[in-house]
Amino acid sequence: MHKRLSSRHLRFAMLPAAAAVALALAACGGGGGGGSGPGGISLSGAAIDAPLPGAAITITSGAPLADGGTTIGTATANSQGSFTLSVTLPSGSVPIFANAAAVGRSAGSTPLELSSYLGQSDVLATVGTLSTINLPDLDISPVSTAALAVYAQTHSGSYSTLGPATYASTIATYRNDILAIAAAVKAVGDNYCTPQASVSSTTDLARLIASSATLSSSSSPSTTLATAAAVLGGTCAQALPALQVAILADPDFAPELDLGDVIDANVQSVVPGTYQLQALVAETPMNWNVNTGSGSVTTPGTPNPAEVLVDPSVTIDASGTVSSSDSMVSGTLVGNLLTLNLKDSAGRSYLVRAKIASLPSNLSSQQAYVIQGGGVNTGSQLLASFSAALAPAAAVPVWNGYTSHTSEDGGARCATGQYPLRFDLDGLSARGHSDSVGSLGACVTPSSNGWSMSLASFNAISGDDGEGHSFTMPLVDTLTQGTGTTPSTTITWSEAASPAAPFILEAPDLNLTVGNSATSTSTTYSGNAYYVMGTHAVVVSSSSGGNVVLNLQDNFMTQLSESSHNVGGDGSQQGDH
């Protein structure tokens, strides 16, 4: 079995309640257990360090352990990292947390501590068991630790209003901040570096970065990645871009960055039926071995160009079994967590784990769904970002389905009839270079079947992180389309035609130039660009540098619902973690 993540990645083990859920990928981790009676719950899992023997597991109510939460259960992992504990839950709707500490193990001089939000006590008590049937993907990870740090920072350090909706909303709004902080936690946890700043643990590190940074907002771009680099200092900053690549494409971490987890027992987030799968697979240069902590994050592999995959007949039945008539797609849907095994026409095989959610009805003529997550090429072992639309065969996307939107986002000022988009280029380049950092504002003029997009005004970001460390964020210098000496500054996006995938926009011959303020140089990525409706990323498949990912700041296009139907977009107001 492949080692999960690193010698310091802690997560509940997914117990094989259904063999199909394992699919070799999920067999290494997840959540499970059996009920312990009214008001109680039993948890069985593992602290994975391949394994992490003796890890201290603490379940708390009200707040994470580091923030003074009330301890309601403890366990010590055995020699294999496994543990079982039963807890009595408090009455009412009280947030419950899982905390893990690698006893006797530190990330350099920094104690390794991670935390995760499990849900509300009253709902957990009603469910009575945490298993693959009702709450998959119970992780204690750098991503969940980062998400809680951002939540605390944006809610004055209080967890009194934390619930499924607010947690999912935090993930959506501050997705790129969470990614940057998670990379910093992982950099320290994997012993790639030691923080320059004085921190008491990795949870304290996450809180320090969240409090020192300018988080994502409607008026300014995030400085979180630059702040994380400044707090870590030295060569640590060089590891962050590659670690972000690993997190965003990793089949365990990537789903944590999208929505939350359906907590209600027997919830089906997709109406059973037969659909067309329109998918975008973008391999990264990062080998899965980066997550063992044994490989170098600066030695990239050679990813295949991004490809659009279309399977015309994918069936999801009432039990969550996924199959296709051509046997190219198979898997399992549990709640809103989709585990897939898929093949492309070249014979490559991918194992994917992703979250699925419904598109608002005004974006499609029939109810369609969005899939976002990560996977691994089972041959090369390269990690790959995965995004897709699942739609009835006759469904037609409506790219101008929104009738009202704001005129400004992150410094991008747009004309009437346009809407603003903000992208973060967070070091997710094919080579993982640390110069690939910046923000991009764009104005989009939509049509029923595409976009016309132009670069918008955006101000450079520089300053101090509050700890005496200065930072500068280089910006995207140019974004143009076409070849020759005078490419157009207006980017034309149209529905992908070969193969036909109307829920995926394509912009051929895109030129993306990124400046490096440290060296006064720039790097240009040229190739076809792709965007799957409702997702958080644009992929540029560059002939000169692999696949470059532009993270899309949360906006009306990404207002998805974990319900099987989405009438008008709920801003990620459903779900739980």
Question: How would you portray this structure in words?
Answer:
- The chain is mainly beta.
- The protein has 3 domains: 1-140, Immunoglobulin-like; 273-391, Lipocalin (Beta Barrel); 408-558, no CATH class.
- It has 8 helices and 27 strands.
- It has helices at residues 19-22, 121-127, 142-154, 164-173, 175-189, 202-212, 224-232, 236-249, and strands at 40-46, 56-61, 70-76, 82-88, 95-107, 110-120, 273-287, 307-316, 321-324, 329-334, 337-343, 349-358, 369-377, 382-391, 408-409, 412-413, 419-426, 437-447, 450-455, 461-464, 470-473, 476-481, 490-497, 500-516, 521-532, 537-542, 546-552.
- It has an 8-stranded antiparallel barrel. Strands 17-18-19-23-24-25-26-27 form an 8-stranded antiparallel β-barrel.
- Helix 3 crosses helix 5 (175-189) and helix 7 (224-232) crosses helix 8.
- The chain is globular and about 60 Å long.
- It starts with 18 loop residues before the first helix and ends in a 25-residue tail after the last strand.
